[in-house]
Specification:
Layout: H1 2-29, H2 35-78, E1 85-86, E2 89-96, E3 107-114, E4 117-125, H3 133-149, H4 153-175, E5 184-191, E6 196-202, E7 208-210, E8 216-217, E9 236-243, E10 249-253, H5 255-258, H6 270-277, H7 285-300, E11 308-314, E12 330-334
Antiparallel strand pairs: 1-2, 2-11, 3-4, 4-5, 5-6, 6-9, 7-8, 7-10, 9-12, 10-11
Length: 337
């Protein structure tokens, strides 16, 4: 197919050049005989050339559409469109690649309804755009299995760490270098059937909680290092974050959001933007996502310089009874047998 397009373009150019050269040479030599024949011949030259150009253009547009279809399919496999409800929670999400024309990148998310509760992942692979896709695929593919099979969150993280290590070894073999600089930050979040919130954090920004109370991070516990450069500790801390209250919304995001800058170099004010959005009613996931995404694009002039991802989980159905009093988040280390 590329050879056929190139041949059509070359023939079009040669055909048009021949017509122009014939007309110019005839004018320079002063040959005025057969003017009508020359005009007719020129019209034929240009007509045929135009047809070849239009044909090449149609083939180029067809291939472009096919390429976008393939890219959309790849995105659907890597970052699948989330259903509007998962485990009774209202869900909305968006991911943007920093590479012009790319539809997938290194920021990923997933939400699954498992027998252990609703489990969510949001991650950020070092780098951005298409170069970060293989590592992102390794993390997501593993999570989609481990989230169902592992009873505890620390077990899910162990599986993710092993999958990412295999990816690094494979890349090192393929590229014949040590891929030690590649890493991924991620957050695992679990919402149990009674509304209890638990999380494991590997160097990722803590989500914000939006609801009846003030807008604030879900926890201030110290996270683990990112996956890749360092081994996991023997005991993995699981952070307990209270319960998900009626009308609570959890905003999970990657650092491409908080590090986005405007034309004056100012960072995107996520906390203030969320506080303003929380004044609107109702706090649907779609409303919060639209408010944040619109504000982010306005802040960056429509083109963030890094991959970005936003994931909203909202308890709109009042699934969980409210607590008598909100407690402080605590961090407990669960031993691994």
């Amino acid at each position: 197919m590329p050879k056929r397009r190139a041949l059509a373009l070359v023939l079009s150019a040669l055909w048009g050049a021949t017509a122009v050269a014939y007309w110019l040479i005839a004018g320079i030599t002063g040959d005025r005989s057969g003017m009508g024949v020359r005009m007719a011949a020129t019209a034929v030259f240009f007509g045929v050339g135009t047809g070849l150009i239009l044909r090449a253009r149609r083939e180029l547009l067809r291939e472009l559409r096919d390429t976008w279809d393939i890219a959309a399919t790849a995105q659907g496999v890597l970052v699948r469109p989330l259903p509007p409800r998962v485990g009774g929670l209202d869900v909305a999400a968006v991911q943007r690649s920093a590479d012009p024309g790319a539809v997938i990148g290194g920021d990923v998310y997933e939400v699954l309804d498992t027998e252990h509760g609703v489990r969510a992942l949001i991650g950020d692979v070092r780098g951005h755009g298409l170069a970060a896709v293989p590592a992102a695929a390794a993390v997501l593919g593993c999570f989609r299995e481990a989230a169902h099979e592992e009873y505890e969150l620390h077990g899910v993280l162990r599986r993710l760490d092993r999958a990412f290590a295999r990816h690094l070894r494979r890349r090192a073999q393929e590229e014949r270098h040590h891929a030690v600089e590649e890493f991924v930050t991620l957050l695992l979040l679990e919402i149990r059937a009674d509304g209890v919130l638990r999380a494991v954090n590997c160097a990722h920004p803590w989500p914000y909680r939006v609801g009846v109370g003030p807008t604030q991070p879900l926890s201030d516990a110290e996270p683990l290092p990112p996956l890749g450069p360092f081994p996991l500790p023997e005991h993995i801390p699981v952070t307990h974050c209270g319960r998900m209250r009626p009308d609570d919304a959890l905003i999970l995001y990657t650092d491409g959001v908080t590090e986005a800058r405007d034309d004056r170099g100012r960072l995107f004010p996520l906390s203030e933007t969320l506080t303003g959005a929380a004044r609107g009613r109702p706090h649907t996931a779609r409303y919060l996502l639209h408010s944040l995404e619109s504000a982010l694009l306005h802040h960056t002039g429509g083109s963030p310089s890094d991959d970005t991802a936003l994931l909203i989980l909202h308890n709109d159905a009042r699934l969980f009874a409210p607590l008598p009093a909100a407690g402080q988040a605590s961090q407990v280390a669960h031993p691994i047998p």
